[in-house]
Structures are given as structure tokens and as C-alpha cells.
Amino acid sequence: MYIINGVLHTMDGPVLSRGYVAFEGGRITGVGPMEELEGVHLSGEVVDAQGGHIIPGMLDIHCHLGLYGSGVGFEAEDLNEMTDPSTPHLRALDGVNPLDPYFREARQAGVTCVLTGPGSTNPISGQSVLLKTVGRVVDEMVVRAPASMKFALGENPKKCYGKRDQSPMTRMGTTAIIREQLAKAMDYQVKYSGNGDQPDFDAKLEALRPLAEGKLAAHFHAHRADDIVTAVRIAREFGLEFAVVHGTEGHLVADYLAQEGVPVITGPILTDRSKPELAQLRLENTAILARAGVEVALCTDHPETPIQYLPLCAAMAAKAGLDEEEALATITCNAARIAGAGHRLGSLTVGKDADVVVLDGPPLDWRTHVVRVYINGEEVRD
Fold it and tell me: What is the pTM assigned to this prediction?
């Protein structure tokens, strides 16, 4: 399979003004300028991009796709288990509805992979999953499960449990619950890996054990600058691999985040200031963080911003000061690396998954149409 005569955004090299990508068996087998194909007999299907743009499939690495359905009401909402502030044993895999219409809209927009997971009412919310956006059986769509452990700081846990006169009612209470559970998980892991008797099975601690082993990243929901710093404090205390999600006030501590080497998944940016911790929401946030040296990805936080508008979010970040190719990186290669899937996704690189999108214009132009979408080398036809 060849896609030829396109402006090629490989994301791991320069933009090629006239290039091609080849794939077979679900993997990319060739990428380069059209000159490489001169005199070569092209076997198999050949698609002419006719001067359009060819990009890797886009990734949204913080959303709730499939857990908050397009239907309205209780039946379509499987985000938050608001019965216990610590629920690390919850698995998004068990709640995702792959036949929700938003999956179709995601892939029609060129979003080929998502990291979807629990909401943010619980200080420890549960396990997310990294999925391709095509399929009927969620287990067959999995790229990585679990993909991260969701933690939440700030208003949401306070609002959920405080109004019931339950803990946590404060930021201190939220952090204390997280710290206590992580300490127990570290102790559980020490006993588990020892030569003596194995600890009694504990579903919550078993779910947290991969964090203690350094095999799973923590994703901290944090908007306010002080909550962002708290996330860093907890992660450093327990030696966690982690990323900050949202980072709305990241622009206020951008130099600190760069110094600490903290990746930030910004967004949603196409939204209103619907609660106090969004008071400092700025469209320039992603650009400010990137200029400071922070690795950034963009998310829709679907359904906060509908997932099909992910490229529009990147376009708005570019309008607010981010270089256009850097903005495209926030929803391709940067997103893949932060999600722990950079070895498979995010760039047009030989050996990676053949997730390829063909466009009739520049990727961040709102007038551009998606012409073709390939996931695992198969064309998606909706």
C-alpha cells in the first residue's frame, strides 16, 4: 500500500513537500521523498494524495471517550464511582462502550488513538486505557491497559465529598488520602517482592503496585498552580513516573515545570471558565509552557470539548503562539511519548503502526477535510 504525492509530516524529521508513505501488515514499511520511487514498480494499492497533506493518526491522551456517552442521563455516564475516594482498582476497560457514536466521529476527524479513563471526583480514580478508535470489541482495540493511574487534586474531590461532610473536604485531605494509599502500596510491593510470606491480596494495592514498580505512570488532574506543585511533590516523594493533566495555571509556574522535567497534557482550551480553578485559563498556556522547555500535549477532555475538535484545539494553540509543527506534535508524537506509546505511534516512521491520515489541506486549517483514515493499515470507512 502506497500513499504518494503528499506534503509529508513525518513528525520525526523535516516536512517533505512531496513525499510518500508505504505500509503493509499493519506496519509502516517506507517513508521518504517521491524521488525515491522513481523507476520503482509500485505493487499493491496506490493512493494519490494529489498535493494534500499526510500525517500520523492523531492522539488524544486525556479524554473520557466511551465512558461518557452521546446519550443524555445516568445510563450513558460511567465516569465517576462517587462512593469511595480511593478506587485505584477501577478499570476503564470495563466501562468503555466502543460502539458509542463519538468513536466514529473521532476517527472521521483523524483521531486514531485515545487514552480514556475515569473522571476526577476521587483523589485516586482508577486505571485508564489506551485504545485505537476502531472496533466493536474493546479488548481488541487496546494498545496498552492499564495506560496510567488517574489521580485528582483541587476542586473536584472537595466538591464531591465535602458536601456530604465526608473526607476529603480540603486539599490537605485529598493529598493525605493519596499519600496514605501510595505508602501502603510501596509497603505491599516490598512484601510482595520479598522471600517471605506473600501479603494478603488487596485489590486496591494490587492496582497501585505497578506504580511502585515504575511500570505505570501517574496522571495528576491539576488546574491551579499550587495543585500542580503538589502533584510534583507527591510524585517526587514516591518516585513516580508522572504527567500533569490540564495544567491550566501551568503558565504561572512554567519555569518550575521545565526545571523539574514534568510533561503537561494541556486542555481543554476550547471551554469556558466554569469553576474557580479555571479563572486563569489562557489560550496561550500551551505555547508559554513549550517556550519554557516543557514537553506538552493537547487534549479535549471529551466531552468537555467534543473529540472531533482535537485538531481545532491544536490550531488555536498555534494561533496563540505555538509553532504550527509544534502544535501538530502536541496531538501526534508528543502525545504518543507522554502516553508511553512513542515506540508504536505518533510519527510516520518505519516499523510503527500504520495509523495514517490523508488531508486535502494543511492539518491545522479549520477548512481542511479528512480524505482518508487508516488504522493498523486498514482504511476506515464510516
Answer: 0.96
